[in-house]
């Protein structure tokens, strides 16, 4: 069991892009306990993230407690910003300026209609030298077939707007960031594991979910940027 959990952790660390970039960022600050803000911290993200990065100071932000365990809520104690991103004034007032070292915003922006304004606010909350990772469905996902678990953008009824990678990158550049890497999300390990994921899904839930094909087909795009100056 110990060996299984260790292998599972290693796969997560190198196959989930937000963790790949966070891991690379942390390597630059080996003696510094960095503050990480996870925007959209549902689906057991607090416990998963802190198990991979036990030395970080983890903060979560979400408008509701979505699929959070008792352990997750304990991790979030006194570090949970309960706010709807669309409420820009509350978002801006709740989060301290120049405070966080790293912000994760993976598959959140497409659930908002004011994503660019939200990014502009979040940009102010990062310290100079801090990193931000943003991931969202690509425009070409509109051409993909519909599948359970989302393969076509419109499969998820809570998706309200498509964002373009140039739009996201230009917003960050305008806010004093340097884009380090951006493009279509294609994690090599996830591509290799596609057939195993399909078999697992058929055995576990008796159906194949669209997420199994995200990396092979290029469902998502991402932008990773570092703040180089305050504006």
Walk me through the topology:
Blueprint: H1 2-15, H2 17-26, E1 35-39, H3 45-52, E2 57-62, H4 70-75, E3 80-82, H5 88-94, E4 100-106, H6 115-125, E5 126-137, H7 165-174, E6 177-184, H8 188-192, H9 194-204, H10 214-217, E7 220-227
Helix pairs in contact: 1-2, 6-7
Can you put this structure into words, describing what you see?
By secondary structure, the chain is of the alpha/beta class. The protein has helices at 2-15, 17-26, 45-52, 70-75, 88-94, 115-125, 165-174, 188-192, 194-204, 214-217; strands at residues 35-39, 57-62, 80-82, 100-106, 126-137, 177-184, 220-227. Strands 3-2-1-4-5-7-6 form a 7-stranded mixed sheet, with helices on both faces. 34% of the residues are buried.
Question: What would the keywords be for this entry?
Answer:
single chain; globular; 231 residues; alpha/beta; 7 strands; seven-stranded mixed sheet
Quick summary:
This protein has 231 residues and is of the alpha/beta class. It has helices at 2-15, 17-26, 45-52, 70-75, 88-94, 115-125, 165-174, 188-192, 194-204, 214-217; strands at residues 35-39, 57-62, 80-82, 100-106, 126-137, 177-184, 220-227.
Write down the overall mean pLDDT.
95
Helix/strand order, N-terminal first:
HHEHEHEHEHEHEHHHE
Number of helices, where a helix is a run of at least 4 consecutive DSSP H or I residues: 10
User: Which structural class do you get from the secondary structure elements?
Assistant: alpha/beta
> Helicity, in percent?
25-40%
Shape: globular
Largest β sheet strand count, sense and barrel closure: 7 strands, mixed
Q: Report Rg.
A: 17 Å
Total number of beta strands: 7
Spatial gap, N to C terminus: 50 Å
Major beta sheet, strand line-up: 3-2-1-4-5-7-6
How much of the residues is beta strand, in percent?
A: 15-25%
Unreliable stretches: none
């Amino acid at each position: 069991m110990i060996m299984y959990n260790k292998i599972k952790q290693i796969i997560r660390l190198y196959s989930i892009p937000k963790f790949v970039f966070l891991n690379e960022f942390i390597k630059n600050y080996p003696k510094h306990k960095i503050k990480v803000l996870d925007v959209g911290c549902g689906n057991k993200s607090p416990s998963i993230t802190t198990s991979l990065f036990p030395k970080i100071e983890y903060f979560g932000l979400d408008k509701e407690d979505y699929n959070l365990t008792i352990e997750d809520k304990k991790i979030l104690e006194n570090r949970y910003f309960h706010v709807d991103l669309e409420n820009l004034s509350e978002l801006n007032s709740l989060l301290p300026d120049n405070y966080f070292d790293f912000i994760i915003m993976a598959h959140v922006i497409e659930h908002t209609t004011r994503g660019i304004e939200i990014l502009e606010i979040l940009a102010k909350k990062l310290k100079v030298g801090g990193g931000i990772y943003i991931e969202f469905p690509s425009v070409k996902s509109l051409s993909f077939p519909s599948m359970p678990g989302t393969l076509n953008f419109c499969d998820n009824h809570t998706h309200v707007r498509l964002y373009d990678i140039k739009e996201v990158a230009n917003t960050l550049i305008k806010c004093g960031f340097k884009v380090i890497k951006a493009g279509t999300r294609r994690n090599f390990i996830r591509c290799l594991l596609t057939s195993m994921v399909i078999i697992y899904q058929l055995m576990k839930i008796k159906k194949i979910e669209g997420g199994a094909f995200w990396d092979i087909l290029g469902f998502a795009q991402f932008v990773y940027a570092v703040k180089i100056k305050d504006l």
